[in-house]
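User: My instructor asked us to take a sequence, write out its structure as tokens, and then describe one feature of it. I'm not sure where to start. Here is the sequence I was given:
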Amino acid sequence: MSNERRAATNGGIGFFGLLTILFIALKLTNYITWPWWLVLAPLWGPLGLLVFLLLTFVPAWHLGESLRDWIAHRRAARKRVNNFHQAADAWKRVDDRRKEKLD
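Assistant: Let's start with the prediction itself. The structure tokens for your sequence are:
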């Protein structure tokens, strides 16, 4: 039963394999006059798909990380500015109280 189950879950030849067989058959029967490198191009399909996905998602992930870092940096800068203004206001109140005592 485990052999049957393993055979049932095996992927088989796949889309690109069938497309390659179809192109080879068409080439050998002279229905297409493509060069052999183009006939065998579907064999590169999984690799091309992988390269496409890497070239698409890795820069997008990197951009997301950079954007997240930039947002965190801006929030920290805004917090520093707010803390500075709060401290300046506190020192202004202290200074005002000191002036009131002198008057």
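For the description part of your assignment, you could build on this observation: The mean pLDDT is 82. Try explaining in your own words what that tells you about the chain.
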